[in-house]
Write a structure and sequence with these properties.
alpha+beta, Dipeptide-binding Protein, domain 3, 16 helices
């Protein structure tokens, strides 16, 4: 569900920005940006992947936007008020236009939000009571009248949202594409199912408009939207996306000046660090992506029945040397992670400390300890009446980084846990996702990029109803904590809610529902001719509104 496992692509996505063949074109205000995957959909009710959300955000503004520091600041909402109980938001819209000249109104938001819930696509959940808590959203998603959704437009420039419970991170949610507006008149003028499939069927109100786009092709061209409310601040005139998968070619292109921003990983990082000139252009950014092993605990699975045993899962988790993974195989600046929430993510509003600042908090169950791992294995062998376990590990082979990681995991587990054999099963992304959703795996290398800047973006993954690939694990105590922290007694008590989420994390890790591995970092080479690209750990990965070319 959600943008499920599309973040896997970020392990292998090469993020590059080119200047159309060198410095001569930089002055033309053109840019070429490489994506690692095709855009799935430009309909914000259907989009589930990183690439789609990024392109939508290029072209459409929501109520709020992310600044260069990743904080939510006004976009179409010039200001907003919050009721004393935190359950009603009143957004006051600025004067803004759609690219066809229509004014942006509160009704555009009402229409889009009702439509998203009524369509009940994968990302509609984000409006419900596990995240945004929009009043009656869950009921509408299940088939209730969309008119009962807690949104209204008292006038053209006032958009009111009623919530079932206070949501401390609600303003930052408004930067996410699911909450963007859609021009109802324009949408209704189109053939059913055609919205967002071409420049003619997609209407922008943001910094850029589509110039050319055909679903499934490797080229998307954009140009500046002269009708944008903040057009005076946009320097880029025309630019494009190109899909590229070879990191070697990317590095070569950066060296010869064809590309001005490339994403690198593995041995390339070490190569760049040893090159005095190249290393001047190297930058790393926290991505917010947690990479982890998913354990299929379904006892009916024809291979994975043994993984319903918690001691076998704990044995595998404690047999993995995470420091070695990040230092010797990933090498992009990634940090070994021993928590269910990535490092350098979700700062506490009261203390300023990141949620997972204490990486030793769960060291009794998550770490690298061969003796402990072997003791867990002995317990599993006794409980299951088996000495040997052969487990399949599936992964997407759309790049070399994941391959190196799983090979290292296989080597470590087999060396440290005699009797456990791991069979690696590489496969294309589509096949990988199909196996996940059809319950056809034992272990899976996967990851998750946060949708918003709060730990709950991770914890909802493992609720009983949270994710269609939920490791086949269910725990009533865990579910209750998450419920209490969203719509229950803890929702309005920030400090108590924060502490309760640690209790939920302890249940998750004590049961080894996943084996956290690392927090990924983006290692990029950026030409001095390109400035102003904003990288974010939550929500939209990259924002190009502030880009300038020298």
């Amino acid at each position: 569900m959600k943008k499920i496992f599309m973040a896997v692509l970020l392990l292998v996505t090469m993020i590059f920005t080119g200047c159309g063949g060198g410095s001569d074109s930089a002055g033309d205000g053109k840019l070429s940006v490489m994506l690692g995957s095709n855009v799935v959909s430009l309909d914000s009710a259907n989009a589930t992947d990183v690439a789609s959300f990024e392109v939508i955000a290029d072209c459409i503004d929501g109520l709020m936007q992310l600044d260069s520091e990743g904080k939510a600041i006004p976009a179409l909402a010039e200001s907003y008020d919050v009721s004393e109980d935190g359950k009603t938001y009143t957004f006051h819209l600025r004067e803004a236009k759609w690219a066809n000249g229509d004014p942006v109104t509160a009704d555009d938001f009402v229409f889009a939000w009702r439509r998203h819930c009524q369509k009940a696509e994968e990302y509609s959940y984000i409006m419900g009571n596990t995240v945004a808590c929009v009043k009656n959203a869950d009921a509408v998603i299940k088939g209730a009248d969309p008119m009962t959704l807690g949104v209204s437009a008292p006038d053209a420039k006032t958009f009111v949202v009623e919530l079932d419970a206070p949501v401390p991170f609600f303003p930052s949610l408004m930067t996410f594409a699911t909450f963007y507006p859609i021009n109802e008149k324009f949408y209704n003028s189109l053939e059913e199912g055609s919205y967002g499939t071409s420049p003619e069927t997609f209407l922008s109100n943001g910094a850029f408009v589509l110039e050319s786009y055909i679903p499934g092709t490797a080229n998307i061209k954009l140009k500046k939207n002269d009708s944008y409310w903040n057009a005076a601040q946009i320097s880029l005139d025309k630019w494009e996306y190109q899909i590229v998968s070879s990191s070697d070619n990317a590095l070569t292109s950066f060296k010869n000046g064809t590309l001005s921003l490339v994403g690198i990983g593995g041995n390339q990082v070490e190569h760049v660090k040893k090159d005095a000139e190249l290393s001047k252009n190297l930058q790393t950014f926290p991505s917010g992506i947690l990479q982890y092993l998913s354990f299929n605990q379904d006892p009916k699975n024809h291979h994975a029945g043994a993984l319903s045993n918690v001691n076998l899962r704990l044995a595998i988790s404690n047999a993995i040397d995470r420091e070695s993974l990040v230092e010797n195989y990933i090498m992009s600046g990634a940090k070994a992670t021993y928590t269910a929430v990535p490092v350098e993510f979700a700062p506490n509003a009261e203390t300023g400390k990141f949620f997972s600042e204490d990486q030793k908090k769960f060291s009794d169950v998550v770490g690298f300890n061969v003796d402990k791992a072997q003791n867990f294995l002995k317990k599993a062998q006794s409980e299951l009446g088996k000495e040997n376990f052969e487990l399949n590990l599936i992964y997407s082979n759309d790049g070399d980084s994941a391959t190196k990681v799983v090979q290292a995991i296989k080597s470590q587990v087999e060396e440290n846990l005699p009797g456990v054999t791991i069979k690696l099963q590489p496969m294309p992304k589509a096949e990988y996702l199909s196996n996940l959703t059809s319950n056809n795996y034992d272990l899976a290398l996967t990851d998750w990029k946060p949708d918003y800047d709060d730990p709950m973006t991770f914890f909802t993954l493992w609720t009983t109803s949270g994710c269609e690939i939920a490791e086949h694990w269910s725990n009533a105590d865990y579910d209750k904590i998450i419920s209490d922290c969203t719509t229950g007694a803890l929702a309005s008590d920030y400090s108590a809610r924060w502490n309760a989420l640690y209790d939920a994390e302890k249940i998750l890790l004590d049961n080894a529902v996943i084996a956290p591995l690392c927090t990924d970092y983006s290692a990029v080479l950026i030409s001095p001719s390109v400035t102003g690209i904003d990288f974010h750990v939550a929500g939209v990965d990259r924002v190009f509104k502030n880009v300038k070319l020298k």
